Amino acid sequence: MDGQNNIRTLFLSAKTQRNQLETFSDPTSTQYQENLQSAIATLEECRRIAEHISLFSPNETEDDISSGDLQYLLIEYYLAELILNDSVSSRRAVLQRAQGAYERYLTFLDTYRMLSKSDRRLYERYIEDRDQFSLVSSNDPSARRDTKIARYKQEKELKLKLEFISRVPLELHGDDATLRELHLAEIQLFVHHTFHALDQISQEFAIVALMPKGSPAVPEERAEDYRERIRQPKDSYSERLDPPISQLMNGGKAGPILDKDGKPLRPFTLLDSRQRLQDGVFRPDHSLPTMTIDEYLEEEKRRGGMIDGGGEQSGRPTEPEEDNLDRADAETMKAREWDEFVEANPKGSGNTMNCG
After folding, report:
1. Cα gap 67→180, rounded to integer Å
2. Long-range contact pairs involving 161-165 (C-beta distance under 8 Å, separation at least 24)
3. N or C: which end of the chain has fewer CB within 10 A?
4. pTM, two decimal places
5. Rounded to the nearest 5°, which phi and psi values hold at 264?
């Protein structure tokens, strides 16, 4: 009797912790993970007590389980649900633990013949191939869609049934038949959730299998660069954003070029850099022009980038040259031809829209 009291207290505590975890907004926070591990430990203790007192036996049937003990069939389901939220442990290990808990939950129900015919067929398919399990065995998109719609309707009906039973007045919850119906509705609903979770786990197993098992190898160049940084003295740190001029001119290498005896410590090149640096001290920040505007226009004309003419002068008619008789005759003939064309084609004699 003490075992029954202990498991009842622990189970209620675990359900309370499970409900509190749903109030967290960040499942990856440290507080959430600590509370999660505490809830998992409580459920594992419930499972240990249930095994110790032989709460369930394979020789019994559903009718042999009391209405108050039906809720303890959900220990494995709650445990698997919480394990999947573990973001600290290895994901592969988390999936394996959750898959094992879900499988034990379905095995309990199958032992007591509490699975429907459709759920029984899904359970047998899962046992045949755990890693490749899928709710829909066919690859036909229409068949997959129909199966998902059918299961969604079944799950919706179970939720409505559970919600209806939960609205029963509290004074009737003490009734054995009402309590039993409530627990059975929960078990059936969570069976749907279990098969959906196993389908998701098998898909995630395929993704985890593609992930590299070890840390990626560091390229040789990055390793050499890291060793170079390690060799640098600790007092070389500086808060300056720009390195000294000597370091810039020496290819990033600081230090003297010659030793005390005048011998070179590293290869170097003689440049007129001192005068060049002096000339650039007081120069403006922006780039100065290299030619005047007139020089620029002359260069553009030479390259053919500018065309003469245009503007106001281009709209004025040119004055005829009195000495150029050939051009004057050409202009006269052009005017006569235009007059003859206007007389032969009066205004409005064009397209009459087939009206005459």
Report:
1. 5
2. 161/185, 162/186, 162/189
3. C
4. 0.55
5. -70, 135
- pLDDT tens by residue, 301-346: 888 887 776 656 555 666 666 778 888 888 899 999 999 998 888 8
- What are the counts of helices (DSSP H) followed by strands (DSSP E) for the chain? 12, 0
Contacts of 97 (CB under 8 A, 6+ apart): 80, 83
Degrees to nearest 5, angle at CA 151 with 150 and 157: 95
**Backbone angles phi and psi of 258, in degrees to 5:** -115, 150
Determine the Cα–Cα distance for residues 64 and 56; give it in Å rounded to an integer.
9
Q: Pseudo-torsion of CA 325, 326, 332, 336, nearest 10°?
A: 150
The average confidence (pLDDT) of the chain is 79
Query: Each residue of 223-256: pLDDT tens digit?
Result: 455 455 555 555 555 666 665 555 555 555 556 7
